[in-house]
Write a structure and sequence with these properties.
By secondary structure, the chain is mainly α. The protein has one domain. 72% of the residues lie in helices and 0% in strands. The chain contains 11 helices and no strands. Helix 2 crosses helix 3 and helix 4 packs across helix 5. It is globular. This is ACP phosphodiesterase. InterPro entries: ACP_PD. Keywords: Hydrolase, Lipid biosynthesis, Lipid metabolism.
């Protein structure tokens, strides 16, 4: 999953949110350098990623991007899932509830920037300024997110093909999200309760 889902699946717990959002920048045993609740967020993020990658719907969904993007197909699925979450009326009743949630996340993360890894410290101002979490709602926001995936990838140069595949397979990708997200939500909640 991408930033919106990881934020949402932190269940309004600020330290969990911080760890969950900057987990990708924490390698291996570096997790032990963080306070306990932040560490739980990092571990929750890793569990969410593993569950997502292993889920049957995600494995099917990756096939849409795989022939063009191989291992990076997962990253495009993560961004796609965030788009469908941002537009899921059972999770966010309307655009204003998503906007409110996004602003709460940025405000909460402000308090943890000092303890976050250096790459996240550099990324966070852009996330906040360009309101990444809210903009997953729009197709233009997804197009920019796909560009970001390509920009950060070592061997990719083209994001337009990914966006074209997203547009052409929109309904199919949405159905994969519908088949997948409720089980992820339960898994994340149960995992956090068990920590």
């Amino acid at each position: 999953m991408n930033y919106l889902a990881h934020a949402y699946l932190s269940f309004n717990q600020p330290a969990i949110l911080a760890g969950n959002l900057f987990s990708d920048f924490v390698k291996g045993k570096q997790v032990n350098l963080y306070p306990e609740e932040v560490r739980k967020g990092i571990l929750l993020h890793r569990a969410i990623d593993f569950f997502t990658d292993e889920h049957a719907a995600t494995r099917e969904a990756k096939n849409i991007f795989k022939s063009h993007y191989r291992l990076y197909s997962s990253a495009f699925i993560d961004v796609s899932y965030d788009h469908f979450l941002a537009n899921d009326s059972q999770q966010f009743t309307d655009s204003s509830s998503l906007s409110e949630f996004s602003q709460q996340v940025y405000s909460s993360l402000d308090k943890y920037v000092d303890v976050s890894p250096e790459p996240f410290k550099k990324l966070f101002p852009y996330m906040k300024r360009h309101d990444w979490l809210y903009n997953y709602r729009t197709r233009q926001g997804i197009e920019r997110s796909f560009e970001g995936v390509v920009h950060r990838a070592a061997y990719l140069t083209d994001s337009q093909t990914a966006f074209k595949l997203f547009e052409e397979n929109y309904n199919k990708l949405q159905q994969y999200y519908i088949d997948f997200f409720p089980s992820l939500h339960r898994f994340a909640f149960d995992t956090l309760q068990g920590m």
